[in-house]
């Protein structure tokens, strides 16, 4: 199969408009970003799922084989602790005990320090990560599967989950709006969804340009600003529960949001 056959074209994930020619300066040949009239920034051409699964790694595995200085390792370790603590804090604050679905679960390591009142379930596009997560989730009564989210969400059944984690996930998803919509079917009425995505509106993106850490071609196919993230979750019929200034500081490369089904 030639390379061009392995590429999928998409319309704007936020407003569904096609023929967006407003190419941005940011790119990594052949992957490009466009800004739609509705202001959403996305990759109009993306690798097909099989190719993603086999040839491209998600950021969780991104630095696996890289030689890393001690200073960098310490910084990553501390950063990792903070990140997990924020997730842990939000889970404990909002979600009731029960089954929690982690979309883009990676190896499942983020559940290591999360309370036993939560049973982990996960979906990941990488076979190796999903297998690893499945091993550890099974010990806690849960499971992880390898598939595109749009295909498996309903298989978990109606009203199953007390919460969902979409951390470092929506920027990878080819169909983020459909996933948000379909996710509601498997959530309980009083469930909460915790979201974390890179903040395209961050000062760092403007200063660092193409070198900004939120760009990862071709893995990051969507780029959210506070405004476009809000519009997408509201259009998918969620109520925004937590999204204050400190969740999307312009000085931060990422933003956090908590939503619930309407
Ligand atoms: Zn649009």
Can you summarize this structure?
The protein is of the alpha/beta class. The protein is built from seven helices and 13 strands.
Poorly predicted regions are 59-65
CATH topology: Rossmann fold
Instruction: Please give the share of residues in helix.
Output: 25-40%
Shape: globular
Radius of gyration of CA atoms, rounded to a whole number? 18 Å
How would you portray this structure in words?
This protein is an alpha/beta fold and 262 residues long. The chain has a single domain, classed as Vaccinia Virus protein VP39 (Rossmann fold, 3-Layer(aba) Sandwich). Helix content is 29%, strand content 27%. It has helices at residues 49-55, 70-94, 127-138, 149-152, 176-186, 203-208, 226-235; strands spanning 7-9, 23-28, 31-35, 41-42, 45-47, 98-103, 118-124, 143-146, 161-167, 187-198, 222-223, 238-242, 254-261. Strands 8-7-6-9-10-13-12 form a 7-stranded mixed sheet, sandwiched between helices. The longest helix is centred in the first third of the chain and has 25 residues, at 70-94. It is globular, with a radius of gyration of 18 Å. Mean pLDDT is 90; it is low at 59-65. Bound molecules: zinc ion (ZN). The site of zinc ion has 7 residues, from loops.
Topology, please?
Blueprint: E1 7-9, E2 23-28, E3 31-35, E4 41-42, E5 45-47, H1 49-55, H2 70-94, E6 98-103, E7 118-124, H3 127-138, E8 143-146, H4 149-152, E9 161-167, H5 176-186, E10 187-198, H6 203-208, E11 222-223, H7 226-235, E12 238-242, E13 254-261
Parallel strand pairs: 6-7, 6-9, 7-8, 9-10
Antiparallel strand pairs: 1-5, 2-3, 3-4, 4-11, 10-13, 12-13
Bound molecules: zinc ion.
